[in-house]
Amino acid sequence: MNMTLTREKESPAIEIDNVGSAALTEKVYETSNLNLWYGENHALKNINLDMHQNEVTAIIGPSGCGKSTYIKTLNRMIELVPDVKTTGQIKYRNRNILDQSYKVEDLRTQVGMVFQKPNPFPKSIYENVVYGPKIHGIKNKKILDEIVEKSLKGAAIWDEVKDRLHENAYGLSGGQQQRLCIARCLAIEPDVILMDEPTSALDPISTLKIEELVQELKKDFSIIIVTHNMQQAARISDRTAFFLNGEVIEYSDTNTIFSNPNDKRTEDYITGRFG
Amino acid sequence: MKLINKSHVAKKMPARLAVNTICKGLFFLATLVGLLVLAILFYRIFTQGIGSLNVDFLQNFASRKPEEAGIKAALIGSIWLMVVVAPVSLLLGVGTAIYLEEYARKNWITTFIKVNISNLAGVPSIVFGLLGLTVFVRALALDRSILAAGLTMSLLVLPVIIVAAQEAIRAVPRDLREASFGMGATKWQTILKVVLPAAIPGILTGGILALSRAIGETAPLVVVGIPMFIAFLPQTVMDTFTVLPMQIYNWTSRPQEEFQQVAAAGIIVLLILLIFMNSIAVIIRNKFQKRY
Ligand SMILES: Nc1ncnc2c1ncn2[C@@H]1O[C@H](COP(=O)(O)OP(=O)(O)OP(=O)(O)O)[C@@H](O)[C@H]1O
Ligand SMILES: [Mg+2]
């Protein structure tokens, strides 16, 4: 049970980054020409984005620009919405996930998700964490116990809950619940973690804890995070994508976006002139 | 400039508070009417029936002599009926609800089906009796058996169970499902481990209402041809039988005053059976609410 998921690099698909600092990292996601419609509403327009291993990629942009829509296509959660149509490609580790022969269950064991609102199950803390592993068929009590400890430590909540593992998760504070949800996600030992505004329902201290946690987690995972909070994106991410009206306006390393944006609209947004 | 005149607001205040108090009183009265009727009913039944209610009454078969009349066959018959109705109607009902809410595509056909299920809940029970007579008693040649009667009753209560289960399933928060799917759970795993546990209290509430109705119904069983007077116990679901409400009806329709008391005692037994069933549901419900 090793949680460090640095993959064997069979074919070193290493690329020299064309933007900003030349990083030598493997790509986890390659999105090309992605379009998405909710019925008639063209919500994502010709998206091209690559995401890298062991990095934090932030997605920013004004409300309604398609951030959640995009992050939900990365684990195909978007399919829960009726009448959604997509074209284009999203390659995860070199396989197109939009191909229906790619089983979503398979994809989602590799790509975990943390939601905007903490959504623990109305079960004990322990049961919350072992939910994923149990779903995947792990029954051995000793292994499950180890997963619980490791995941809760990984989500920096172990010390707060270790004496009450069998109490209902609803008894935790909002910030603790969100970290429990992160632990629950870590328990399936994913490769990528998607986070859709994970701190928007939390107080500043809990937010800080989660930001520190994200920094810690990127050593072992690749993280894609949607945020409304510009400082947060600047603090924790390696790369930032700026979305506007369903399009990617600018995507480059976070320093460049925040200190020297290419596009006037990016500049306007990060300086708070609209959005 | 202020748009709200505070003195005007203050002037209105006593009237608003008065209306509030009056409404509270009215609703209390409405509740009181129900409680009062129930209390009178209980009083009448208990004073009338308590004298006839003893061990012999529970152990005797029906008889032409009121002092020897007992409820054994009907009580056991009602329990047999529940043994058929509870699993059949709950499995079919919850299964249908799961399909309609979780799997079926949302289109006009499913909407049409859902509306019609609600309509079925309002169809008079005697119509279900005719259906049972045609399908189970005659076509499937089940005769006047517990099985035929049980299946008929299951159909009767099925709409209520489906609608209640649908409501309960729909009330399960969407983000719990998302959390489960997000970890790679299949639809069935999500239903089994997240949706159903959260929906069980609601499903049981509907289920127990439905079963209470089934245990008190007579009309469909009269149509199916279940006898009112029987002096043996059924051995299998293929045997014929009688149930409490039919036995009670039989007694109330007799001229002798003593039989009215016997009937009242029968009603008490029926009430106790109902309370017993309800408490089982409450226990299961509490168990799930504690865990979830
Ligand atoms: N389930 C849905 N059905 C139809 N249209 C939707 C649905 N979800 C989102 N949309 C539309 O798609 C567009 C993008 O929405 P999305 O939720 O991705 O925005 P967002 O960037 O996450 O916004 P926010 O910052 O407010 O969360 C919006 O115009 C929205 O109205
Ligand atoms: Mg959003």
Automatic annotation (TrEMBL), chain A:
InterPro entries noted in UniProt: AAA+_ATPase, ABC_transporter-like_ATP-bd, ABC_transporter-like_CS, P-loop_NTPase, PstB-like
Entry's Gene Ontology molecular function annotations: ATP binding; ATP hydrolysis activity; phosphate transmembrane transporter activity
Pfam families: ABC_tran
Keyword terms of this UniProt record: ATP-binding, Cell membrane, Membrane, Nucleotide-binding, Phosphate transport, Translocase, Transport
Ranges where the ABC transporter domain occurs: 29-270
Top-level taxon: Bacteria
GO CC annotation terms, alphabetical: plasma membrane
Subcellular location as annotated: Cell inner membrane
CDD domains for this protein: ABC_PstB_phosphate_transporter (cd03260)
UniProt keyword Ribosomal protein present: no
Protein name: Phosphate transporter ATP-binding protein
